[in-house]
Amino acid sequence: MPRWRRAIKQRILTGLILLPLLVLFIGFASPALFNLLVYAVVLLALVEFFTMGLPAEPVTERYLAIAAGTLLTPFLVVADEAVKMAALTLLFIFLAIFFLLRFRDLQTVVQRLGMITLGIFYLPLLLSYLPLLRELPAGREWIFTVLLLVMAGDTAAYFIGVRFGRRKLYPAISPNKSVEGAMGGLLGSLGGAVLAKIAFFPALRLFDCLLLGLAAGVVAQLGDLFESMLKRSFGVKDSGRLIPGHGGILDRLDSLLFAFPLVYFYALWIFRF
Fold first, then answer.
1. 80 and 154 belong to one structural domain
2. Are residues 79 and 175 in the same domain?
3. Residue 209 lies in a domain
4. Measured between alpha carbons, how far is 204 from 200 in angstroms, rounded to an integer?
């Protein structure tokens, strides 16, 4: 069997195992258990990120970055706004002082501090919107809607890109992506939003489906491209090997990381039951 067919078969098999577990967990886990899962995902994602971004770092600095990002996440999820700001402020001051007193190479210390700050903003901050989204009215429906429109967009972008892709979308970042695939991905995201309305979220209006499908579809693709930029700059193909056939956990989260905050604020500020 050709390698690409084995890879697709493995991806499908892994998806068939993980998707029902994910649906059950989102649908029935208690808020505390759900939040614990998010914290665990943040931890794993930070391990992947700093393994790629700080491969030659002293282990103390890498472990510090992973611990700091993981411990910050509960403050971003359950604390009030003043405590969140205090946690972010104190963490930054702590990291600044830590590198000020422990720098090894004056030519690279700012880059290392910047990498750690990027990882903390990229993962704990963006992933904290997942439990916040679940706490909203119809929170489970919102999460399933995000997952559906992102997965539909990814699937449509892949197959339309393979079949009709001619013009390169952003070859410096992702040589295999095409303009045609990106347009197909937007159509897939629109279809995913409409399917969510029909299947389990009738409170969505067609206006909501149109706006969410387009906006979340765009930012999901940008999130994918951003992670591709990170991987190319780090010189790796996949962020890890945690999920057979899919790469690392960051490779599965990339599109969702940008979509969760957008949908959260849409649900909070624009949507009305």
1. no
2. no
3. yes
4. 10
Q: What is the pLDDT of residues 102-140, one digit of tens each?
A: 887 888 899 999 999 999 999 999 999 999 999 999 999
* Domain assignment of residue 252, given as a range: 137-273
Q: Which of 146, 258, 160 lies closest to 192 in space, CA to CA?
A: 146
Number of domains in the chain: 2
Q: Per the structure block, which two tokens stand in for 112?
A: 């290392």
239 and 161 in one domain?
yes
- DSSP 8-state assignment for residue 123: I
pLDDT tens across 216-265, in order? Answer: 999 999 999 999 999 999 999 888 877 766 678 998 899 999 999 999 99
Do 39 and 107 reside in the same domain of the chain?
Answer: yes
Give strand ranges (E) for 144-264. Answer: 168-170, 174-178
- Position 146, amino acid: V
Given the structure tokens 């699937």, which residue do they identify? 155
In a domain? residue 10: no
DSSP secondary structure, 60-106, as one string: HHHHHHHHHHHHHHHHHHHS-HHHHHHHHHHHHHHHHHHHHHH-S-T
Q: Both 187 and 163 in a single domain?
A: yes
Task: Calculate the alpha carbon distances from 236 to 66, 76, 154, 179, 267 in Å.
Answer: 20, 30, 21, 24, 36
- Helix %, strand %, coil % for the chain, to 5? 80, 5, 20
Residue 17 parent element (H or E): helix 3-28
Q: Which of 135, 167, 191 is the last residue of a domain?
A: 135
